[in-house]
């Protein structure tokens, strides 16, 4: 029967230490942010700590711009961290590129215990030996250099060869209990001794990542299932790190499900628009809505409930409850949940979050909004809060309130009844005598004229004035919109559509 390492951590509560350690390449991906979210929630649920570390040893791909975007993404999403870049901590520095001296010290300790050894074999030599032994080339390295004598090493060096350093993998099964997937065993001999330091002296990611975890006391490694194959090597390395006195325990591992695109069974690609966190922000997601949806990509708070607050999420979340099966990104569901969170905002909060989207769309004329425009936006906000799923919908819904030039949309014009001009003229007749231009007074006057006197159905009665005011088939509540525009502007727009219809003959 397979046995789990006896020194596997039993840390709970405030002793829990998790980490988020992305590489600063490209734009923040929603799958990566889901990883940060689960680590953050697990730390907060247990009263533990989240460490934010940067894996920036790939000089060709890493960039400071991407790093700043990562910080921006986590800050916007309100995912805070207890130690790491930007905030410091007892295990600084938190960038791999600044920790080379630390790695050198660990390498020396592992060389002293015999856990690492010099390997001079070239790829061509390894292939040739495998072929001669009748072994498949895919099996790779054959542990040939494990027991080289000092004389053999000296001979290789005399040829000008520089050695890589390989980890001496234990000749036994390696087993761990995945917090999401249960017991996993890597049979003895399923992978060879592997390179941890290149011949040029630069350590590989497969070395520095677990070394940093060990030195920073990480108790729980929560990461994507695509990294699961590397766990075997990490377990082997941890065994060596414990024997060398670098750490005293092996962390617990949990491998979260992949996030798939909306169609097919492929992992959500970085090139997929749904993967771009900032695109979701630009379209008008709020952090509460997007975090809620990302939390559902592998976890649920209850079988019949999808919408919850961040406090409820933290209280309920446990990594052992995450489903191991792949999660599919559903754009419509994400937007629906965001709409629910928009409606949970206070009116003032909603209006304040909406303003930048109106400004960016040029609704205020391209410059800073005037006091009057801000007041109008705040008065209009409650009319659309119940109807919106994304803040980016605000310019389309409310833009007509801030301009004198109304563009009549084609579908709105097509949907007008044949007697639209007569209906609009009747609206003018009904509203001209109204002194107190309130929604109730406007509704009463229009209803009496259009419904009671002319016998029109509400859909026929109120469609034309809606198009006259907004240019759209769908708009905020009609009578409230008229109040916001005021009596004079409302009458002007009603007459303008009458003139337009007469000019175009439609």
TrEMBL record:
It is found in: Cytoplasm. It catalyses: tRNA(Glu) + L-glutamate + ATP = L-glutamyl-tRNA(Glu) + AMP + diphosphate. ATP binds at residue 270. A motif ('KMSKS' region) lies at residues 267-271. The keyword Acetylation does not apply. Residues 16-333 form the Glutamyl/glutaminyl-tRNA synthetase class Ib catalytic domain. A motif ('HIGH' region) lies at residues 22-32. GO terms for molecular function: glutamate-tRNA ligase activity. Belongs to the class-I aminoacyl-tRNA synthetase family. Glutamate--tRNA ligase type 1 subfamily. Catalyzes the attachment of glutamate to tRNA(Glu) in a two-step reaction: glutamate is first activated by ATP to form Glu-AMP and then transferred to the acceptor end of tRNA(Glu). This is Glutamate--tRNA ligase. The lineage of its organism: Bacteria, Bacillati, Actinomycetota, Actinomycetes, Micrococcales.
